[in-house]
Amino acid sequence: MTMTTDHLTTLHRKPDRGRTDRAELDAVLDAMLVGTLATVVDGEPWAVPMLYARHGDHILLHGSTGAGALRHVGAGAPAAFTVARIDGVVLADHLFDHSANYRSAVVRGNLEVVGEDEEWDALIALSERLVPGRPAEVVDMTRKDRAATLTLRLPIRDGRWIVKVRDAGAGPAGRDPSAWRGVVPLAEVWGDPVPETDLAPGVEAPASVQGLRGARS
Amino acid sequence: MTMTTDHLTTLHRKPDRGRTDRAELDAVLDAMLVGTLATVVDGEPWAVPMLYARHGDHILLHGSTGAGALRHVGAGAPAAFTVARIDGVVLADHLFDHSANYRSAVVRGNLEVVGEDEEWDALIALSERLVPGRPAEVVDMTRKDRAATLTLRLPIRDGRWIVKVRDAGAGPAGRDPSAWRGVVPLAEVWGDPVPETDLAPGVEAPASVQGLRGARS
Q1: How far apart are CA B72 and CA B180, in angstroms?
Q2: Are B61 and B119 in contact (CB under 8 A)?
Q3: Would residue A209 count as lying in a domain?
Q4: DSSP class of residue B10?
Q5: Which top-level group of life is the source organism from (chains A, B) (predicted)?
Q6: Does residue B40 lie within any of the structural domains?
Q7: What string of pLDDT tens digits covers the 217 residues of chain B?
Q8: Of all helices (H) and strands (E), which one includes residue B108?
Q9: Residue A48: which of B79, B106, B177 has the nearest Cβ?
Q10: Does residue A198 fall inside a structural domain?
Q11: A139 burial class (0-12, 13-18, 19+ CB within 10 angstroms)?
Q12: Which of A124, A163, B20, B93 is close enough to B179 for a disulfide, judged by CB 3.0 to 4.6 Å?
């Protein structure tokens, strides 16, 4: 039942679960909505969950310009961004070999502040990740909105990331061939949209909302 | 669309989303299976996703005794453990106010190695978290299994954790009252069990597997 540990970006444990193709990193990053940004503040670990979007060779993050810690990491501090999702539990025929199917990634680097010339595109990319198609449906951000937003990006550089995936069954019978073995999948599934009760008459759920159905891959 | 940042355990941004009741921390920790353990190695941030279980006043973690980084954090290094789950996307009538419903927690402290006298209980608690009821159904761990496992725990101490929850609608109409506003919920849902194809004849899915149905809270 071990989802073990990597020392920085070197894969010491269970190297068969490591993936080295950049496309696999992108697939894992693009499958999730939230990750954990970790950095070091006064020698102590600091970590915070954040929405994000991969956009080309960057992980985009954003927050309020009033958030002191974001300004700190925005100033070039080394950071590690982690995502993980459990895709199922794996039942073996004895306790020690129980496990989980999962996808995870850690990207290391130094955060950069996204400058004004690129910030608009970055914020749209973040919005598209959360609700695809929504930016084109609604009133856009204003300059004032943008001024209140600190947008950061973490470059995805060769040798500075690690991806691990387990996507397999329980394996052959072990200590008790009479026991059930197998996988119970766990998926992220969209529920029915919940409109605000005070919508203007006749306002229907737009295409972006209609698109959020079924399981997220 | 901002899920902002906390400087260490102090809640500077959107304090209305912070929860101070220990029971709310436990509820958030107990709702998830995977988190991110962050620490500092040679002055650099280090982070890895890990399965975990809250067990009383501790967060339990485990890995292989062969994992060097786990030994490092086990030796008392300061750590931050983060969990986060997106419960839905929140659509406003203009882009800037889009958001997400979520539950998140960060617990800070110094990891301890769980000693032999308590390790058995800790490993059972971890297994129960992943698949409730499974430990009683299958062949137990051996002493050798346990010797191959490094079990760590992070104490949950007053003032060293932060919980944030957003669980609300889109709020009142803003810049465009003609636009749809509302929430699209996102849930974790168990799929149908997938047995190994070589099970002995007549082996049925046990109670633990039958219990993994529907949405996880």
Answers
A1: 51
A2: no
A3: no
A4: B
A5: Bacteria
A6: yes
A7: 444 433 333 444 565 677 789 999 999 999 999 999 999 988 999 999 999 999 999 999 998 887 767 777 777 889 999 999 999 999 999 999 999 999 999 999 999 999 999 999 999 999 999 999 999 999 888 999 888 899 999 999 999 999 999 999 999 999 999 999 999 999 999 999 999 999 999 999 999 999 999 999 8
A8: strand B99-110
A9: B106
A10: no
A11: middle
A12: B93
Q: Please identify among residues 181-210 of chain B the ones whose CB lies closer than 8 Å to any CB of chain A.
A: 181-196, 198-200, 203-206, 208-209
Expressed as residue numbers, the domain containing A144 is 15-172+181-186
Residue A117 parent element (H or E): helix A116-130
Task: Determine the residue type at A136.
Answer: A
Write the ipTM.
0.91
Number of domains in chain A: 1
Residue B106, in any domain of the structure: yes
Quote the tokens at residue B181: 């506003």
Q: Does B22 touch chain A (CB under 8 A)?
A: no
Spatial CB neighbours of B105, under 8 Å, sequence gap ≥ 6: B25, B28, B29, B82, B83, B84, B161, B162, B163, B164
Q: Choosing among A48, A103, A121, A123, which should be mutated to test the B contact, i.e. which has the most B CBs within 10 A?
A: A48
